[in-house]
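Form 7-S
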Amino acid sequence: MIQYSLRCEDGHTFDSWFQSASAFDSLKKTGHVTCALCGSAKVEKAIMAPRVRASRNQAADPAEQNKPMVAAPGSDMQKTLEDMKRKVEESSDYVGENFAKEARSMHLGEAPERPIYGQANAEDAKSLIEDGVPVLPLPFMPTRKTN
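Output:
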C-alpha cells in the first residue's frame, strides 16, 4: 500500500491510499481518482514529505504522539465527508458483500442499472476496474444496514 498526498485543480488537498503506484496510475487514467471535496477528476500528486518514525530505541516527539491522524471533528473536511456519506446512503442501495457481483451484472446488462454501494475485496475490485466496470472506492466506511 502507498499513501499519496493529492491536489485537485481547485487547490483542494487530501490524502488517499492505493495498492501500488501503478494502481494509482490506472485509477487516475480511468477517472476514478477524484477530489474528496469537490469531486473533480483533475487530480495530481502533491509534493509530499516522507514519514520517518523514530527508531524503537528513540523516544518519539511527545507533540507528534498527540497529533490527530484524521480530520478533527467539526472540521470542514469532516463535515464534507459526513454529507457525502449521508447522500450516498440515502440515494443508493446497500448490497453489502454482493457489490462485485451486482456491479458486474449491471455492467453486462443482466440487471437494471441503479446506484449501489457495498464491499469488495481487493481482487474483485481490481477485476472490476480491469474489465471497465465503473466503480469508485468510498472515502468512508459505509453503515452496514440490516433488515
